[in-house]
Design brief:
The complex is a heterodimer. By secondary structure, chain A is mainly β. Helices cover 10% and strands 35% of the residues of chain A. Chain A has two domains: 138 residues, no CATH class; 197 residues, no CATH class. In chain A, strand 20 and strand 21 form a beta hairpin. By secondary structure, chain B is mainly β. Chain B has a single domain, classed as Autotransporter beta-domain (Lipocalin, Beta Barrel). In chain B, 5% of the residues lie in helices and 62% in strands. Chain B is built from one helix and 17 strands. An eleven-stranded antiparallel beta barrel of chain B has the order 1-3-4-6-7-8-9-12-13-16-17. In chain B, strands 10-11-14-15 form a four-stranded antiparallel sheet, with no helix packed on it. The chains are: A mainly beta, B mainly beta. At the A-B interface, helix 1 and strand 13 of A face strand 1, strand 4, strand 5, strand 9 and strand 12 of B.
């Protein structure tokens, strides 16, 4: 009898312990449908091209909700302001100009008088809306060009930091607690079997060589130190802001590697360079502490899209695989419902509630100002 | 003699609850204290113990990952005092000192971080529901008091260390539990003891007050036996306990902290020697049998506890 009583008590306690609450969405913006559910039929999606002006500069933004990509380039080319229009069903070609050139998704002319030349990529990247709202308060939102209500452009550092040191926080894992990959291994597109069509990848092109780095791997390592021929670079990915950048890792003539410091600034990754142990901010795009403080990395254009789109675009590319030298649960997203939750885990300086915080947008960054483009603008 | 054995048994029951609030998913190691003991009226029971918890097993769910990239240790010194007001009611207080260490191996580099200081305290009131020669039942409840240090910082950069590296939790918790023992089960010296405990966490302030951190609630159940022997003037007890532990994920505001929470089943064998009626020396180990963890977590590879207890009777 007593045994039964204990079991009842234990069961009641266990039930209580398993109760959980749900996010209260209230009237907050909702997350739009997940863009990019293409394959099969990669050729049936629609590409839209937008010519826009921002900070007195002219840009062309091309994207497709179906194919799950947005890229942007300067319209200024060879001293001229080019006009662009979309090209359908010819991926990786996405647009053409009035001179008869066809341009691919990385901005290379594939046909026409300027064949082989490249448009100038913008400083831009994909990421969660909130991250640009907090790093670029007052961010414009296309097409209304409305601005955010916050005004926080002046950033005053202290205690040896270029940013307020009390806004830099430990993410909890410690330096190198999230291990960067230093010797990535690749395989051909056709042999990849660990990715689903909707999985996102970050692609990098140098010359005719294209490599893809899956989010499934980046979620666990955040930084991959890699090289193409004599080009030494790091893929820097922050799962908390959903942002990927590609940094040249040759600084002042010295080639270094980046590691994960375990710190966060505005809940965004703070890499450190192993040459000087200086700390850098991915979204502030500079070193914010240490010997290299104030230096800015050279950025290369990242293309973020789905595995389905990428493998159709570049069937001969190389894809980073899970042979990282570390044993992790690749394919299992380590942050629970973070991608869709209103929660950010760590606090940020500014919030901008015009969109759901986790809506993925393309942010164009010019002169320290930002403008965001949504997938629904390219549907 | 019966009382001595009872004390040992009950201490062992307690010791299971002394072990780790969230030892595997971080957190101060001793907030889940359920001191349930029955002693003679107007008597004191004082115990000094040391707990060593070594974590280097990386698990994802139930799968052990092949990874040697980090180690954690938690060393805890605990001072517990119990005073029995009468046959029914007694008071139990526990003070702790905690040292947390973490080493991350990256290539040829080691990144070592540590923090130490006073940990949280527990104060409980116990009520003896039933006590006779055949069985006993004690219930207990009380707060875990956040007197522990929870603002330890990284010595190099000065940033607050993660909650699981802090000696204290920074939060008031409520603890309830019960312990039941059946004596003379197979023979006059064989006892079976079962315990249940539950800790309800509250939110502690973190990150300069703009973000709350809440350790996951914890449920613990254990069942075990104790066989005692008389060796001359000494008493020797051998025991083994099977323990089930469940913790909810920690939360930052409303978000489940990745890599926290889960279920553990451990086996804790040990022994206790009583060279006199007033002194107990005890040792126990913890052998992990099963873990099913949320996300990927570093978890206990082994653990041991040694203690010295002194009993001060009223006569």
């Amino acid at each position: 009898m007593k045994t039964h009583i204990y079991f009842i008590i234990a069961f009641a306690i266990a039930l209580f312990s398993c109760s959980s609450g749900d996010d209260n969405m209230g009237d907050l913006p909702t997350l739009p449908d997940n863009p990019g559910t293409p394959a099969p039929g990669i050729g049936t999606g629609k590409i839209l091209v937008v010519e826009d002006e921002f900070e007195n500069q002219h840009f062309v933004i091309a994207g497709s909700k179906t194919f799950n990509f947005i890229v942007s380039f300067s319209r200024e080319f060879d001293g001229q302001l080019r006009n662009f229009s979309a090209v359908q069903d010819e991926l990786p070609v996405i647009m053409q100009d009035e001179d008869g050139n066809k341009w691919d998704i990385f901005g290379y002319a594939t046909e026409g008088p300027d064949k082989g030349k490249r448009l100038v990529p913008t400083q831009s990247l994909m990421g969660y809306w909130f991250s640009f709202g907090t790093f670029y308060p007052g961010i414009e939102l296309y097409p209304s060009n409305s601005k955010g209500i916050h005004d926080g452009k002046v950033i005053v550092g202290d205690n040896g930091w270029l940013v307020p040191s009390n806004e830099v926080r430990s993410g909890g894992v410690g330096r190198d607690g999230i291990p960067a990959v230093g010797n990535p291994q690749f395989e051909s597109v056709s042999s990849v079997d660990f990715l689903e069509n909707n999985d996102l990848v970050v692609a990098f092109r140098s010359g005719n060589k294209v490599k893809a780095y899956p989010h499934d791997v980046l979620d666990w390592h955040e930084i991959v130190n890699d090289s193409f021929d004599n080009l030494y670079f790091s893929i820097v990915y922050c799962p908390l802001t959903g942002t990927a950048t590609i940094w040249d890792r040759t600084i002042d003539g010295k080639t270094t590697t980046f590691g994960v410091s375990g710190l966060l600034y505005n809940t965004n990754i703070v890499p450190y360079d192993r040459e000087t142990s200086s700390n850098w901010s991915q979204l502030f795009d500079r070193s914010i502490n240490g010997t290299n403080s104030g230096k800015r990395p050279k950025n290369y254009m990242p293309l973020e899209t789905t595995w389905a789109t990428f493998k159709a675009l570049y069937p001969n590319a190389e894809v980073m695989n899970t042979n990282t030298g570390f044993n992790r649960s690749y394919g299992f997203y380590p942050y629970g419902d973070y991608k869709t939750s209103q929660s950010l885990i760590f606090p940020v300086k500014y919030d901008d509630d015009r969109l759901h915080p986790k809506e993925r947008v393309h942010a164009l960054i010019v002169n320290g100002e930002a403008k965001a483009y949504k997938f629904e603008n390219f549907d | 003699m019966r009382k001595t054995i009872l004390l040992i048994i009950l201490f062992l029951g307690i010791s299971h609850f002394l072990k780790a609030q969230t030892c595997c998913s971080g957190g101060s190691p001793i907030t889940s204290n359920l001191g349930i003991q029955e002693i003679d009226p107007k008597s004191w029971y004082v115990q000094l113990s040391y707990d060593y918890n070594f974590l280097d097993a990386l698990y994802s769910g139930t799968q052990k990952l092949n990874d040697q990239s980090r180690e954690r240790t938690t060393q805890t010194v605990m001072l517990q005092a119990i005073y029995a007001l009468n046959n029914k009611i007694s008071f139990n207080a526990l003070l702790t000192h905690v040292k947390q260490e973490r080493t991350i191996f990256s290539g040829e580099n080691e990144n070592y971080t540590s923090a130490s200081g006073v940990g949280d305290a527990v104060f409980m009131m116990q009520y003896s529901v039933l006590s006779n020669l055949k069985r006993n039942l004690v219930v207990a409840a009380g707060p875990k008091i956040p007197i522990g240090k929870f603002d330890a910082t990284d010595p190099e950069l000065g940033f607050a260390l993660a909650p699981d590296l802090q000696p204290g939790s920074g939060s008031w918790d409520g603890i309830v539990g019960l312990s039941h023992s059946e004596f003379h089960v197979l023979n006059p010296n064989f006892t079976i003891t079962g315990t249940l405990g539950y800790r309800i966490s509250s939110e502690g302030e973190r990150f300069e007050g703009d973000t709350g951190y809440r350790f996951g609630n914890e449920f613990i159940a254990s069942l075990g036996f104790n066989e005692s022997f008389i060796l001359g003037k000494n008493s020797l007890s051998l025991f083994a306990y099977l323990q089930y532990r469940h913790t909810r994920p920690d939360k930052i505001d409303d978000f489940d902290v990745p890599g926290t929470g889960g279920q553990w089943v451990n086996l804790s064998p040990g022994f206790s020697i009583s060279p006199s009626n007033y002194v107990d020396l005890n040792f126990s180990a913890e052998i992990p049998l099963y873990r099913n963890l949320k996300g990927t977590q570093l978890t206990t590879s082994y653990r041991f506890n040694v203690g010295l207890a002194i009993k001060l009777f009223n006569n």
